[in-house]
Structures are given as structure tokens and as C-alpha cells.
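hey so i finally got around to running the thing on that chain from the lab meeting. sorry it took forever, my laptop kept dying and i had to restart like 3 times. anyway pasting the input first so we r on the same page abt which one it is
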Amino acid sequence: MKNAVFFSALNLYITLVFSNSVPVVSTNEIFLTNLSTNTFTIYARIFPVSMAFNYWHNYDMKTVVPNANFDYINGRNENYQFITLSPNGSQHGWGHEHEGNAGEYGNIGYGIYKIEFSYSNNFSTIFDSILVEYDWMNNQIPPGDPMFDLSIYYYENTLDQTHYFTYDWAGPCPTEVVPANRLLRHYHRCDIPGEHRLKNNGPFIYDDSHNNTYAYLPLDMQSDCGDENMMSSIPYNRYGLLTMDLIIKKNITGRGF
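ok and heres what got predicted. didnt touch it at all, straight out
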């Protein structure tokens, strides 16, 4: 993992403190760091905004590497639904199924995930958000390769009370300000040769084969309900978000004239 970049004009340094710490130290792949030197504590949560696939490339919210009751690829459980980031603290975050390790606050999978940031733990107001997209990478990025790690840093300008985020991927890519479209793509980490490639849609499966019994659309990323973490016949109990990059391919046969 890269060290955080220090901005001398802001006289910032890194130490992150989490009030919602979990007892198991794990391998994270997304790190969030609050570099505010003011008194601002920020809260962050993550959830999928596209179809999400687990380690076996199945449309299945169950993680293959559960940790501390984080059993799903939605970065939360019943007790820890967000991360608390105090100013001047240490970094914490989430893991990814691709690594085969359990993240400290659970894992995410393949797909597009949205990270929301708030100044209140009830998320009544979202002051910013960032999208992170992971395509299939088995043949491009072997598990355990440090190029997988993503660090996101929160800064505050104490003069005018504005904020901004920077990010970097482990490796040769420089630290940059999060782009205006708020989308970070693992398959295009930066413009340096070898750090970007075409998106690979991979062998992801949406059916009931390969022990995948979750052929309901959409899965519910907000409920922790044993083996029924999917859409229910009770609409007010469950809902999911399918807002980005949904492509359905199906063979269509005509009548022959």
C-alpha cells in the first residue's frame, strides 16, 4: 500500500481512529482515511449499485470468506452498517472477494459499488459519494497482487469549510483528485502504460447453475437474512438498486418469416 501524500499547505498528517472497530484484524483492499485536521468526524457506508458477483463469479450476496459476522458482499452486517472516521486517525476499510481474504468491515464483490459520506451517523444528509467499479480480473491481477489496493483520502480546507477527496491505487499510479464523475475504475487505474486495459465482463453467471440458487433480481444488499438475502414477495420488506451498467443478453427466436 502507498503512504498517504502530505499537503504541506494544510499541514496534515495521518492517524485514523475508528469508533466502530471490530475485533478481527483483516486484509482490506479499500482504505478510507480522514485527513481533516479540524473536528469533523465523517461516516462512510458502501453498497452495490449494479449486479454484484462473489468470489465464484455467481450472482450471490454470500461471501466465501466471512469474518466477524460479515457474511455478505455488502460491506456491512447487523451490528456494523457504516464506518466511523475520526479526524487525524488510522486507515480502515473493506476487503474484496478476489483476494480470498476477509475484510475488516466485510467484503465487496465484482460490480459497481457506491461509497456514501455523511457528517451524521444516520446519513440524513449525504455530502459526497464515490463509485468504485471492479470487472473480472483473474488473468490480469492475480490474487495477492498489491496493485489491487485502493486508498481514498478525505481532506478539508479549514479556510472556507470545503472538502475534497484524493485517491491512489498501489503501484506506479500517482495520487489524484477524485474525478468529477466520481467513478474510480480498477481496470483503468491511470494513464500509465500497463495500468489500464479494456473492461473484461468475465464469466459471471446469472442463473441457477454452479450451486447458485439466488436467481432473483435484484438481491437485497441491506438485509442480513441467512440464506434468503434476496428479493421477497413482500415488497415493503426488501428492495435493491439496479441503476448502472445492467446488460441483459438473451437468445430471441422469431417465427421464421
